[in-house]
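Field log, afternoon session.

UNIT: design team B
ACTIVITY: writing a sequence onto a fixed backbone
BACKBONE:
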């Protein structure tokens, strides 16, 4: 699924491709740790920068730390306080072995303080906001996704479901899709770009979603447009929650907690878990907030990160 990002955004091919693929968390993380270590031994970098909270984030940070290479963590300090989530384990461990911690929000800085991490912490804003501001203009010029799907702006719901807590639990998955079916039966167009793992789980559960428009995974630029022009978004994705907020589109989050608490506090996002009735009630009762806040910076996070790294390098030398 990553191929489309390189093609669509004109990115240079990576010098090294790990080729690990999917698998159980332990297997996947272990394989990445081994292969990243081989790359680091060959390249001998001065700094290893990791992003987010995936298994590759933790593997990269661990490989660097064991070789005594400084680690910089972009998107540091996020906490859902749910350690059943693999992402929570990944982000906590990565923060505690990083020397530079680039936080997207004030809340993230406070989370680190509570864990005794105050050195090397920088409040820079969210690089995803940088990316959205830049790439949505590109999307408007290049993508015809709304026309292709015969969608009218602000007249459809966009839904994504991919987290293991939802896809690996048949009852949660069934409840979510029953809610989406009810929304669609009530006259709201519901489109669902479906992650391959979710598609597999749906088949295993014997689900046959009706009324909903099931799509193949869409590209990043296509997803930005689908988010921007949606009437409402339902998702269990952290990134989609934020992008909904950036576009000021109401969001219903199919989880019991979120690391992006600012979206909830601002009124643009509501947490409902997987309960069918709560999902339906949230969509029905959602109202546009009157106020507007900007907790994720000014769209210059990347510049602030590079400035901090260069400053640190000068001090070291």
């Amino acid at each position: 699924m990553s191929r489309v990002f390189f093609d669509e955004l004109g990115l240079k091919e990576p010098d090294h491709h790990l080729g690990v693929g999917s698998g159980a968390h332990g297997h996947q993380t272990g394989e990445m740790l081994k292969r990243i270590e081989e790359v680091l031994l060959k390249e001998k970098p001065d700094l290893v920068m990791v992003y987010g909270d995936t298994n590759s984030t933790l593997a990269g940070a661990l490989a660097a730390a064991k070789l005594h290479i400084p680690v910089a963590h972009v998107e540091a300090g996020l906490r859902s306080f749910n350690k059943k989530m693999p992402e929570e384990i990944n982000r906590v461990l990565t923060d505690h072995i990083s020397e530079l911690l680039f936080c997207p929000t004030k809340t993230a800085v406070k989370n680190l303080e509570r864990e005794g991490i105050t050195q090397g912490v920088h409040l820079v804003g969210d690089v995803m906001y940088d990316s959205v501001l830049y790439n949505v203009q590109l999307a408007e010029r290049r993508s015809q996704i709304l026309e292709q799907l015969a969608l009218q702006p602000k007249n459809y719901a966009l839904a994504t479901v991919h987290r293991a807590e939802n896809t690996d639990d048949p009852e949660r998955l069934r409840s979510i899709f029953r809610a989406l079916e009810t929304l669609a039966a009530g006259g709201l167009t519901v489109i669902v770009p479906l992650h391959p793992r979710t598609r597999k789980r749906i088949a295993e559960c014997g689900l046959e979603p009706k009324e909903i428009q099931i799509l193949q995974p869409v590209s990043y630029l296509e997803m930005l447009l689908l988010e921007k022009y949606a009437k409402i978004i339902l998702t269990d994705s952290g990134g989609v929650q934020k992008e909904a907020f950036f576009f000021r589109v109401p969001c219903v989050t199919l989880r019991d907690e979120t690391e992006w608490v600012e979206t909830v506090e601002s009124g643009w996002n509501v947490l409902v878990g997987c309960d069918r009735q709560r999902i339906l009630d949230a969509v029905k009762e959602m109202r546009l907030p009157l106020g507007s806040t900007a907790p994720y910076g000014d769209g210059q996070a990347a510049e602030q990160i590079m400035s901090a790294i260069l400053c640190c390098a000068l001090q070291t030398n």
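LOG NOTE: The longest helix spans residues 25-43.
NEXT ACTIVITY: expression trials, pending approval
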